[in-house]
Amino acid sequence: MSLSLSLPLTGCGAGGEPAPPAAPDPSASATAGPSRAASARPSAVPAGKTFAWPDGLEATATVLGRLRPADRTDVQGGTVDDKRLAGAREKLLGQSGEPLGLRVKLTNNGDTPLDLDAVEVQWVGVEVGGMAQRADGDGGFEGELAPGESATELSAWAVPDIVAVGYQVLVWPEGARNGAAGQFSGAVPGASLRPPQGGDHDHSGH
């Protein structure tokens, strides 16, 4: 019967003594390890709060609000220069939405340096779907983050309404879909879905 195949088998050694149990299969332990690590991964935190990985790396992702034209670049204050703002709006591709600012801070409380060039950030909709798009050439971590150090990036994003009503910002320290992503959940205050009426699309973002 197939049931017998799942039961442990014992044999006899010399002199009829029971044989010692077989040594565990190293490959089986290696396979089980990631599953245990995955179950221990921290859950999503609200945007603006701190997400911590088991190895000591911490991240905070904060949505900085709608961007407005200015004569200087100042994502933190919600204003950017016209060229940067136009680049974010172009990413909307006719969808109803707003250009928003995002600040991501990484702090290395671990023992080994972090390759910042491998860090990737995604901004995805979790209520309806869709993805926000970063303005071309805007933001991005570079270099190496030594233990005990912090680094911050400010960037402009085009965020469709379908993302703004419920989103997660994903921070991948080892590149998209490698390892565990830091997850930051939220919704843009006042965001709502504005379906076109009478066949006309609202491209204004207002």
Verbal overview:
- The chain is of the alpha+beta class and 206 residues long.
- The chain is 15% helix and 33% strand.
- The protein contains 4 helices and 13 strands.
- The strands form 4 sheets. Strands 2-3-6-11-9 form a 5-stranded antiparallel sheet. A 4-stranded mixed sheet has the order 1-13-12-8. Strands 4-5 form a two-stranded parallel sheet.
- β2 and β3 form a beta hairpin.
- The longest helix has 14 residues, at 26-39.
- The relative contact order is 0.18.
Summarize this, please?
The chain is of the alpha+beta class and 206 residues long. The chain has helices at 2-5, 26-39, 82-90, 161-164; strands at residues 45-46, 50-52, 57-66, 68-70, 79-81, 97-108, 114-115, 120-125, 133-134, 144-145, 150-160, 167-172, 182-186.
Secondary-structure blueprint:
Elements: H1 2-5, H2 26-39, E1 45-46, E2 50-52, E3 57-66, E4 68-70, E5 79-81, H3 82-90, E6 97-108, E7 114-115, E8 120-125, E9 133-134, E10 144-145, E11 150-160, H4 161-164, E12 167-172, E13 182-186
Parallel strand pairs: 1-13, 4-5
Antiparallel strand pairs: 2-3, 3-6, 6-11, 7-10, 8-12, 9-11, 12-13
Summary keywords:
disordered C terminus; alpha+beta; single chain; 206 residues; disordered N terminus; five-stranded antiparallel beta sheet; four-stranded mixed beta sheet
C-alpha Rg (nearest Å): 25 Å
| β-strand amount | 25-35%
Unreliable runs: 1-15, 17-39, 196-206
Helix content: 10-25%
Tell me how many strands there are: 13
What's the number of helices? 4
Quote the distance from N terminus to C terminus: 69 Å
Order of helices and strands: HHEEEEEHEEEEEEHEE
Overall pLDDT, averaged?
79
Structural class: alpha+beta
